[in-house]
Amino acid sequence: MLFFARFKHIKMKTKKALVCPNCWGLGIVTDEDGNTALCVACNGTGKIYN
Ligand SMILES: [Zn+2]
C-alpha cells in the first residue's frame, strides 16, 4: 500500500515537455494541472544558451 501511495505521488509530479514556440525546442514543461513554465532551453527569450 505504501508503494502505491508513493507511486501515485510521483506520477502526480510527472511533467511533460512541450515544444517551445520561441526556440522550437522541447524546453517547456507543464505539470499535471496544465500549468506551464518558461522554456528551460531559451528561458522564454527564443535564444538558446548552452
Ligand atoms: Zn524555448
Order of helices and strands: HEE
Gap from first CA to last CA: 43 Å
Stretches where pLDDT is under 50 for at least 5 consecutive residues are: none
Radius of gyration over all CA atoms, rounded:
14 Å
Bound molecules: zinc ion
Strand order of the largest sheet: 1-2
Which assembly state applies to the chains in this document?
A: single chain
Number of helices: 1
Domains (count)? 1
* Number of distinct beta strands: 2
Q: How confident overall, as mean pLDDT?
A: 74
- Secondary structure: helix percent: 10-25%
The major beta sheet can be summarized as:
2 strands, antiparallel
User: Beta-strand level of the residues, as a percent range?
Assistant: 5-15%
Shape: elongated
Tell me what you see in this structure.
- The mean pLDDT is 74.
- This protein has one helix spanning 2-12; strands at residues 16-18, 28-30.
- It is an alpha+beta fold and 50 residues long.
- It has one domain (13-50).
- Strands 1-2 form a two-stranded antiparallel ribbon.
- It contains 1 helix and 2 strands, in the order H-E-E.
- Bound molecules: zinc ion.
- Zinc ion is lined by residues 20, 22-23, 25, 27, 39, 41-42.
Which secondary structure elements does this structure contain, and how are they paired or packed?
Elements: H1 2-12, E1 16-18, E2 28-30
This protein binds zinc ion (ZN).
Summarize the structure.
This protein has one helix spanning 2-12, and strands spanning 16-18, 28-30. It is α+β, with helices and mostly antiparallel strands.
